Amino acid sequence: MTFDRSAGLAETARALADGEVSSRTLVEQALARIEATQPTLNAFRLVRAEAALAEADAADRELASGARRPLLGVPVAVKDDMDVAGEPTAFGCPGEYPPVAEDGEAVRRLRAAGAVIVGKTNTCELGQWPFTEGPAFGATRNPWHQGHTPGGSSGGSAAAVAAGLVPAALGSDGAGSVRIPAGWTNLVGIKPQRGRISTWPRGESFQGITVNGTLARTVADAALLLDAASGNHARDPHRPPAVDASAAVGREPGRLRIALSLKPPFTAVPARLQPQVRAKVVELAEKLAALGHHVEEADPPYGQIGLTFVPRATAGIAEWVADAPFPALLDRRTHGAARLGKLLGGPPLRAARRAEAVLHRRIGRFFESYDVMLAPTTAAPPPPIGAMLGLGGFATDRAMIAACPYAWPWNVLGWPGVNVPAGFVDGGLPVGAQLLGPAGSEPLLVSLAAQVEAELCWYEAWPPHGVPAVHERLREG
């Protein structure tokens, strides 16, 4: 039986368990695809070719012995802010970083599920921006249009999955950094509840606003990776009750009350939803209504939520900069954010942390009237490569807020959100929409996303620089 090389995570795991393909074959193919696209897409900061092949051989021996684990032998990738034993964790920064001694908890759990980690994907410097470019590695490009960014900061993971280099990947989301690149590359991106996937060895990443999440072409694959990576280190401060995301994929969500929220939360600089993106989100809302859900326009009472985000984000940057082995090489904007983080790291940070409970109560009341909120993931399609790279700090912030004003409030709240593809604009650029819920609502969001996916089948579309084109080039080469 011929195995489809463009199969997703769940199908790949099943084929391995059924003996239709070997892990070594899959890993060799993944490595060949990465090598073929690295000069153009540039999705990976580091490729673990020798180590991954050795791990694939070990997985094949385990499979042959009859052992079964959820992802045994499946090649996946992780973002380069996650520790992989024996490899550096540069987090988008320039300089030669030393190898770390131990896996981070999320990576440890992926390995426990049997996954083979083929490499670490590119991210912008300390994950600050919605683009994946920098002097440390160049520019990561969007498989749908190489002149545009795949987004950030998990842009390398998004590019790798969208192009079919790996069936799924981990990213991290501190202000939309999983959902934004998922939206801009036609992927499903799950930002889970804070603590669902451990960020250890940092118990709280960026003062709790950053969580690890999953990117995949289908809801089922994103949920499977979420389940495999979920769980806590013994010293994690956030330990939410366990959920079974995969079980929710095949479960009908029931008739839901859905709030369509098109108004950006308050920001210090203007943000406007571009008409072509608005039209796609409204189309998705109409599809949800046609599926039997009650959909109406309503905006949550965000208030001045932005005042609680800035101290936490900038204090988190200051913490990472303090640990950087080559601070002189960091971007001037990084140093500016770190200086602000030090200024805000006392009483303003403590006030921002205290305000979270107030926000939970106020916005939680919104979810007494609605089950799920639908909002744009971004206000604009993916910008061209280089559009934000050379800007100063304030100009970068303005451009970032103009393009991406919708995702970050859920990082302050620590609640789950799922990006679903919403279609294409401007001649083929993907955009997305967010399904957002209160604490612990991943199963409901996953169930609703799977229902929409069954109607729209977004996974059937491949980008011009995806797996079919890559395999053609490999045959020619």
Quick synopsis:
This is Amidase. With 477 residues, this protein is of the alpha/beta class. It has helices spanning 9-17, 23-37, 49-64, 105-112, 155-162, 179-184, 219-229, 245-249, 275-290, 306-323, 332-343, 347-369, 393-403, 409-413, 442-456, 467-476; strands at 44-47, 75-79, 116-121, 133-134, 138-139, 168-173, 188-191, 211-216, 257-260, 294-297, 372-376, 417-425, 429-436.
Instruction: Give me the side-by-side strand order of the main sheet.
Output: 1-3-2-6-8-7-12-13-11-9-10
How is the biggest beta sheet arranged?
11 strands, mixed
- Number of strand elements: 13
> How many alpha or pi helices?
16
Listing every helix as H and every strand as E from the N terminus to the C terminus, the arrangement reads HHEHEHEEEHEHEEHHEHEHHHEHHEEHH
Strand % is 5-15%
- Identify low-pLDDT runs: none
Index terms:
16 helices, two-stranded antiparallel sheet, hydrolase, globular, eleven-stranded mixed sheet, alpha/beta, 477 residues, EC 3.5.1.4, amidase activity, 13 strands
